[in-house]
Amino acid sequence: MRFLEFEKPIAELEAKIEDLKGISNNSGVNITNEISKLQTKSQNLLKKIYKNLTPWQKVLIARHEDRPQFLDYLEEISNDFEFLAGDRLFAEDLAILGGIGHFEEQSVVVIGQQKGNSTESRIKHNFGMARPEGYRKAKRLIELADRFNLPVITFVNTSGAYPGIESEERGQSEAIASCILACVKANVPIISVVIGEGGSGGAIAIATANKVMMLEHSIYSVISPEGGASILWKTAKANEQAAVEQKLTAQDLLKLGVIEEILPEPLGGAHRDKKSTIQMVLRAIKAQLADVMLNVTDFKKHREERFLLFGEKNTL
Length: 316
Fold this sequence. Notes:
Largest sheet: 8 strands, mixed
Shape: globular
Distance between the termini: 35 Å
CATH class of the largest domain: Alpha Beta
CATH topology of the largest domain: 2-enoyl-CoA Hydratase, Chain A, domain 1
Number of domains: 2
CATH superfamily of the largest domain: 2-enoyl-CoA Hydratase, Chain A, domain 1
Strand content: 5-15%
Number of strands: 8
Order of helices and strands: HHHHEEEHHEHHEHEEHHHEHH
């Protein structure tokens, strides 16, 4: 497992533990007590560090390459999932994936952003940064869900929409705006989960939902801390300060009323126990979807009212 910069003391303890285990296995010397003491020390240090995380440290955790990604969740959602490709206008975009399947015996449309977890897959999925055709594909799937009265579940994990020249030439801002409008107009329930980064319009395009949840160490912001620092402080080195000022953590956003629920992660982050994280997220989706379907009659109006309330909550 890759340790983050602020986890170096833990990495050093874990390395000592592995060394002692090797000595014990090779020499037959019983050093179980010493190993146990170091494991306890490592666990206590992990608890201390993760109890006092800064916003920037949460950014780093949200970007951790080993966090469970959309396709990991999709494997557990449905065993009969059918991917639907293309925007019917230009091309297929692999940063945003989606299709139709069953979730808890309910037919649903599922859409998610996939970053990739290896050099090859990151290039394939463009690091989760969709081009216009990705958002037009998402729009097509949302309109399909509306036509056939299917709930929509979305998984957000992007640093933002792809900012390349070709994206701008093909109408990136219009594609994002049209996707948001499709979410607003659809009279079906939409449940969204931020599982890593929720960056800018690239995130809100598929997170204009009736209920939005965030994993405990995920982030959701109008711009990356580096981008915000470059604009406001004229240097990307002010990223830590920008992360504080942006109020991009799940805890901040719950207070501001931007999200409905924070989903707890295993100690040390979702990447330390992917399986339990995925199962916990799916249980939360099931509960929120059931709540919306039971208590909301006009899903479109519910979403409109939800967004109109932004800014009326207590400020931080």
